Amino acid sequence: MNGTKKQEGFVAITSVLIVSVLVLVLGISMFYSSMGDQSMSAAYDNGQEASLLADACAREAFHKLKENINYSGKETIEINGMSCTINAIEDISTSTKKISTSASAGEQPHFKRQEKEIRYIVESEDWLCQECDFENVEISGNSLTLSEELGDGEEVEGVLRTTTSDSDWTGDGNYFSIIGLTADSNDLVLEENQTEGVRISNPLSLNDIKRVGSSLMEWTETIPENTEINIYTKVTVSEEMPTVAPETWQLAANGQEIPEIEDAADLTNHWLWVKQELKTTDLNFAPRLHSLTETVTQSDLVPVETEGYRVSSELDISGMGTLKDSQIFWKADIRSEATIVVETRFYDGQTWSDWQTALNGRQVPGLAKGTNLESADLQIRAVFAGGPETYPTLHSINIFIEVNK
């Protein structure tokens, strides 16, 4: 009996010991398992943190590249108390750069690396290249500006000569030559028994007319049957007052423009000759020239509203990969009513798209994410409008394209 009780007690004690050992082993196992989970969690967090840092560094490098296409990288930057490294920017081609960054996190560092391939277009000079198409724009420093256009302003008094009196017609010094004509009651008439006569006025200086506004030849006359009056003009060029009359003349029309004087012409060193010719076939009837007036007005030049444009050459953005993201932005001086509209179009290797208006700082229109860039080209068109107070100026246009490899 006593032996049986001892045996049962031994079994109980043994069972307790076994259970205790199992509990201890289970506890130790759970402890180490917990430690492993914490280590794995910390490693994951460190990896995520390093990845975010490297990505932030890449975005910072991209931003600096947009500000200065010659940015070279090779710097460490601080972000929220942590640091990452921008490696040297690589020039893959004349229009492609590669950004690479690295970052680490944790006491036992986890390293992450980010890379971006960027294709770019920077237009800030050579605006009027041989392959470009442009109209009414010009270079100003390193910028492109709408050309100022001058138009006619108000007409102002220029040159006016009126011949209406006896002294005007035949007074000393008031004519170049006169044959067969005389003055009578303030009219120019044929001398007695003359069937024709000619008077040539002194050459009239047009030197003060720098831009012709208008011209007008007009006269008043009485022309009986079998009589006629003809007025002729000629414009000559001489630095000094001419002393020889022209050999050829232009027939003028009453109330019309003066022959050989064109609108907007510069008449520096120009002279106007006027010849009056009176004829009759019957001495009982004679023509009378009552007055003769030559008028040439001057027009001021003033700035006017105008437009112009510039189309770039075909810009190569081709290469392996698809489009991940894009941005177009430009710098310009636009004031008052002046405007610059920037448009782009895309070539996919087969056809050109239509022109689409771009928004400053936004995605390039017509370039959808995922677009195949293997045979891609772009063109940029800038349309200017301005005046009369201000004319817009374009300093630069930049396009950046991030590529999925």
Write up what this structure looks like.
The protein has three domains: 38-117; 124-149 and 305-404, Jelly Rolls, CATH 2.60.120; 164-302, Jelly Rolls, CATH 2.60.120. Helix content is 18%, strand content 47%. It is built from two helices and 26 strands. It has helices at residues 2-67, 166-170; strands at 73-79, 82-88, 90-93, 96-105, 110-123, 133-135, 137-140, 143-146, 149-163, 177-179, 181-184, 187-190, 196-200, 204-205, 212-222, 227-237, 250-251, 270-280, 288-304, 306-311, 315-316, 322-333, 339-347, 356-357, 377-386, 393-404. The strands form five sheets. Strands 1, 2, 3, 4, 5, 7, 8, 22 and 26 form a nine-stranded antiparallel beta sheet that branches. Strands 6, 20, 21, 23, 24 and 25 form a six-stranded antiparallel beta sheet that branches. Strand 23 and strand 24 form a beta hairpin.
List the helices and strands and how they pair.
Elements: H1 2-67, E1 73-79, E2 82-88, E3 90-93, E4 96-105, E5 110-123, E6 133-135, E7 137-140, E8 143-146, E9 149-163, H2 166-170, E10 177-179, E11 181-184, E12 187-190, E13 196-200, E14 204-205, E15 212-222, E16 227-237, E17 250-251, E18 270-280, E19 288-304, E20 306-311, E21 315-316, E22 322-333, E23 339-347, E24 356-357, E25 377-386, E26 393-404
Antiparallel strand pairs: 1-2, 2-4, 3-4, 4-5, 5-26, 6-20, 7-8, 8-26, 9-19, 10-13, 11-12, 13-18, 14-18, 15-19, 16-17, 16-18, 20-25, 21-25, 22-26, 23-24, 23-25
